[in-house]
Recover the amino acids of this structure.
């Protein structure tokens, strides 16, 4: 039956008294006869640990090392672990003997400790000593000196090995120390305390595997205790009593004030300890010795941290101090946190003290809204939460921080409204002007707006502004995005190199993985898929290592991976990445390139799976959502994509309906037009000209775009323009020009690996050209494989009944008329039509007729 730590302690105390009485009665017998068995009969019956000891414990215990010391602070389970090894030895016939510090060692009489122990601890014997650091010095020395002699085995438990002279034995290989970490419980062990999963998670989060407090908290929650107030939990579960009696009472009394101050921060360094108590003599090394595994490495190489439960207990003690006592401690820790750049910790303490102005000054001095690029969005998010909790979020300076947080969450309209509201309330300080100008540019990027004259002025202001090394990482990145969207790739790449050098020099890691993302955007536009994949993998590695909780960055990363895989023709991989971006991009941080990277593959794959008609409906809904959110530019791009999907369906012969312009939003293309907008606009207009029967006009429009794409090294855009212009030349009857364009497109595809554009652009002309070139090069064979498989499958697998259906559909007959003609029910007609649509890969009557006609003409 499982027992709690408190019950086990009570039992142990009782057993110690019994053992002492029995030892007194046996003293003379043992002294006179020296019988090993007589002492062994006085060993109390030991309770087993309620949770099984770690498997590695038995591995260490059963090796040939003569002396094993389990060294750990109170409450880790040393006695329980030792008792399990004892019972295992007893079951194996090893005749072990158990003693602890309550034994009356007066039985030795006039004999030396070593000779007295030699009589009771015979060769090949196994001795267990619980609480070895509490033994008399001569007894401890005798035990340790006898252990390596006569194949004896000694197992000790101790809080510290400082008083045990074992260094020589460790060096000789005659002793081993089992670390306390070996005894800490895994989370799965906590779940065996008959707790719910949520309760087990709560307990493990606080105790971090510390055995005794785990049992106390587990019993408290199992008995119906509430887990929503950690202070109440610690008191009612008696954990606070345990910590005071077993941990804090064992430390020097003059350390208490310093320990309470350490509860205010996540990290501990020697510098902080020196600031709290200059003459106290307490150091990190001293705390490591006193607390062992309750004092572990922090996030920085030189920092350490207290066990979470111990820190919570000390913080409750801090809250009980009177204000004059709390203030000096808070001031010291706040100043230390601010000096080392831990803005969140310093801001938290200032907010708790109600120091609104100091809070805002601290944030402004540290970088204000630019902390987004310098330290990462998580810092902005935490500062916003701290201000909300402290009720100081109404200040205009802080509303700019909230604006940055909203942009990261994809709430561009709210961010823009909050920015306009905050501007009039900002103080006339240089930091406030800096934050306002910075967010003005970020709003332009994230809201996908044309830069206005005031935006250009903001950029110039920021270029002449300097607040330290961290700021240098932000501005080049902003310039790179600006040039990238205008296909000025050399200038953009130069800005990214500058930003990376500044990041490395300043030690700011957060921006590095975004720089890799921007490089990947450039490589994707240039058709360098190998370099794009390398940049994305590097960014992904940085994200996984340091920023896994940044969901906005994950969405951007997934969107660009989806575009890469889609352009490579790996549609299944693209679909997998779109599950992690797709429409999520509408509720997360994104800029124009990212919206295109996510939305275009998503809707093109949807058209392939569900048909163009259904996809257009979904596309229009998304377009309306974007327009309502103030993202008119992205909504306009989706209008262009809608026209392209309809245009390609018409070029393939799947739909005989005329493609209409449908309110394409580009009246003219100016200097602020991005290369994505130029591409979507030109292709959309060309499709409309072709559908209207004006192929020469379509050729003229596409020729201008092809020259633009070639001059800007937009390989993917150039490929699309060439494929569509080849189809337009074919419509004009200029076979030579069409063949030349297709040959150039094929060379680009073969060089870059851009495969999917051959399935998306050029309609029947592209399909026919690929069919003619099968067997010449591997790239073409790969492109035609899917089309050939679909065509051969369709031709050979249509049943006679389905062929009848296809003929009836071509005549425009209804389901009822078809059933009457061939003698089946209307339900049977619909069944056969579903099979026919699936085999043809279409989603409607007109598409089925067009595809059937195409297959017949291609035979």
């Amino acid at each position: 039956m499982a027992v709690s730590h408190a019950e086990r302690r009570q039992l142990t105390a009782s057993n110690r008294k019994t053992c002492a009485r029995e030892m007194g009665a046996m003293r003379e017998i043992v002294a006179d006869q020296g019988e090993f068995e007589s002492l062994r009969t006085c060993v109390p019956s030991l309770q087993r640990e309620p949770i099984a000891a770690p498997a590695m414990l038995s591995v260490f215990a059963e090796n040939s090392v003569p002396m094993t010391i389990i060294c750990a602070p109170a409450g880790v389970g040393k006695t329980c672990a030792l008792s399990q090894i004892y019972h295992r030895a007893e079951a194996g016939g090893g005749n072990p003997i158990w003693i602890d510090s309550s034994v009356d060692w007066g039985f030795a009489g006039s004999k030396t400790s070593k000779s007295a122990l030699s009589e009771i601890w015979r060769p090949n014997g196994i001795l267990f000593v619980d609480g070895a650091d509490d033994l008399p010095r001569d007894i401890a020395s005798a035990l340790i000196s006898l252990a390596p002699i006569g194949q004896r085995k000694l197992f000790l438990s101790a809080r510290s090995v400082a008083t045990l002279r074992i260094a020589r034995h460790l060096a000789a290989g005659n002793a081993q120390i089992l670390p306390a970490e070996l005894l800490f419980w895994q989370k799965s062990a906590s779940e065996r305390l008959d707790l719910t999963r949520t309760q087990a998670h709560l307990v493990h989060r606080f105790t971090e595997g510390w055995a005794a407090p785990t049992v106390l908290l587990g019993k408290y929650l199992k008995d119906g205790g509430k887990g929503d107030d950690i202070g109440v939990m610690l008191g009612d579960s008696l954990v606070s009593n345990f910590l005071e009696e077993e941990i804090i009472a064992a430390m020097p009394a003059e350390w208490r004030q310093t320990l309470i101050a350490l509860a205010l921060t996540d990290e501990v360094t020697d510098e902080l300890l020196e600031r709290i108590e200059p003459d106290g003599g307490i150091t990190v090394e001293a705390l490591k010795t006193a607390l062992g595994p309750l004092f572990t490495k922090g996030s920085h190489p030189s920092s350490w941290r207290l066990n979470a439960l111990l820190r919570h207990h000390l913080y409750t003690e801090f809250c009980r101090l009177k204000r004059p006592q709390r203030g000096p401690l808070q001031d010291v820790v706040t100043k230390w946190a601010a000096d080392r750049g831990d803005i969140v910790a310093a801001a938290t303490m200032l907010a708790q003290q109600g120091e609104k102005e100091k809070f805002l000054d601290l944030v402004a001095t540290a970088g204000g809204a630019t902390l987004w690029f310098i330290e990462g969005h998580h810092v902005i998010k935490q500062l916003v939460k701290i201000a909300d909790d402290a009720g100081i979020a109404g200040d205009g300076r802080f509303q700019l921080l909230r604006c940055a947080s909203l942009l990261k969450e994809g709430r561009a309209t709210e961010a823009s409204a909050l920015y306009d509201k905050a501007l009039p309330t900002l103080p006339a300080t240089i930091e406030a002007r800096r934050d306002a100008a910075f967010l003005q540019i970020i709003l332009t990027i994230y809201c996908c707006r044309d830069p206005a004259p005031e935006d250009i002025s903001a950029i110039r202001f920021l270029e002449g502004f300097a607040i330290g090394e961290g700021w240098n990482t932000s501005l080049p990145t902003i310039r790179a995005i600006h040039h990238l969207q205008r296909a000025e790739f050399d200038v953009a790449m130069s800005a990214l190199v500058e930003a990376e050098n500044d990041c490395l020099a300043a030690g700011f890691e957060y921006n590095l993985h975004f720089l890799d993302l921007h490089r990947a955007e450039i490589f994707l536009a240039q058709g360098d898929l190998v370099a794009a994949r390398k940049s994305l993998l590097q960014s992904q590695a940085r994200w996984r290592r340091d920023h896994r909780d940044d969901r906005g960055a994950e969405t951007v990363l997934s969107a660009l991976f989806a575009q890469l895989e889609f352009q490579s023709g790996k549609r299944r991989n693209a679909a997998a990445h779109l599950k992690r971006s797709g429409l999520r991009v509408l509720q997360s941080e994104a800029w124009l390139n990212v919206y295109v990277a996510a939305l275009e593959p998503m809707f093109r794959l949807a058209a392939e799976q569900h048909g163009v008609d259904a996809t257009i409906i979904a596309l229009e809904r998304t377009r309306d959502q974007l327009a309502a959110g103030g993202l008119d530019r992205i909504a306009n791009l989706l209008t262009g994509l809608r026209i392209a999907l309809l245009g390609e369906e018409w070029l393939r012969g799947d739909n005989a309906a005329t493609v209409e312009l449908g309110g394409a939003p580009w009246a003219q293309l100016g200097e602020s037009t991005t290369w994505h907008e130029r591409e979507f606009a030109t292709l959309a207009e060309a499709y409309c000209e072709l559908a209207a029967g004006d192929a020469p006009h379509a050729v003229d429009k596409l020729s201008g775009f092809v020259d633009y794409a070639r001059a800007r090294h937009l390989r993917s855009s150039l490929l699309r323009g060439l494929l569509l212009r080849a189809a337009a030349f074919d419509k004009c009857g200029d076979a030579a020009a069409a063949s030349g364009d297709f040959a150039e497109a094929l060379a680009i595809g073969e060089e870059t690996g851009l495969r999917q554009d051959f399935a998306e652009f050029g309609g029947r002309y592209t399909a026919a050209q690929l069919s003619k070139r099968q067997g010449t090069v591997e790239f073409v064979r790969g492109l035609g494989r899917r089309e050939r498989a679909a065509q051969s499958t369709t031709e050979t697998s249509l049943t006679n009944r389905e062929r009848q259906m296809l003929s009836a559909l071509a005549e425009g007959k209804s389901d009822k008329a078809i059933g009457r003609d061939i003698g089946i029910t209307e339900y049977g007609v619909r069944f056969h039509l579903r099979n026919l649509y699936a085999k043809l890969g279409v989603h409607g009557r007109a598409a089925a007729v067009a595809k059937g006609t195409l297959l017949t003409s291609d035979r």
